[in-house]
Amino acid sequence: MEKALSFKGISKTFNSKYILKDVSFDIEKGKITAFLGQNGAGKTTTLRIATGLLLPDKGGVLVDQEKIEDAKKHVAFIPDYPYLYEELTGREYLKFIIQLTKLEISQEQVEKEIIYYGLNKEIDKLIKNLSLGNRKKLALLGTLLNRPSVLLLDEFIAGIDPINMKRIKMILKDYVTKWNNAILLSTHQLEVAETFCDALILIDNGVILKRESNLSNVLSGNGNLEEYFINTLHINGDYKND
Ligand SMILES: Nc1ncnc2c1ncn2[C@@H]1O[C@H](COP(=O)(O)OP(=O)(O)OP(=O)(O)O)[C@@H](O)[C@H]1O
Question: Which key words tag this protein in UniProt (predicted)?
Answer without folding.
Answer: ATP-binding, Nucleotide-binding, Transport
